[in-house]
């Protein structure tokens, strides 16, 4: 049992750190082990469900939107692309992005605002600036 293992190895635990990290890791490992043991009973992927439930026309429109989004991202400067990915893909907060990129949080917000406007124009059929 993992929690009993935690008790038996309590002398190895760092008293300066909270138990939260250890408990999160144990819980994660238990969930992964449980999912592995139930491989046959797993639910289908979200993508598979969406493909089954959405009409062909809608799926084609979604694929076209993704293609155009990728084109727009490829046309951005590496700095702007990194900013968008950090905020929208990695879910970093503007303060963390600002700290890591050595710019102000306000500058991050302004750049994100401008990039969103640029993206909107691009996806509505206008060329990015």
From TrEMBL:
Span of domain RNA polymerase sigma factor 70 region 4 type: 71-119
Record has Transcription regulation as a keyword: yes
Residue ranges annotated for the RNA polymerase sigma-70 region domain, each copy included: 5-39
Keywords, comma-separated and alphabetical: DNA-binding, Sigma factor, Transcription, Transcription regulation
Record Gene3D superfamilies: 1.10.1740.10, Winged helix-like DNA-binding domain superfamily/Winged helix DNA-binding domain
Ribonucleoprotein found in the keyword field: no
Family classification: Belongs to the sigma-70 factor family. ECF subfamily.
NCBIfam families membership: sigma70-ECF
Name of the protein described by the UniProt record: Sigma-70 family RNA polymerase sigma factor
Organism whose genome encodes this protein: Allofournierella massiliensis
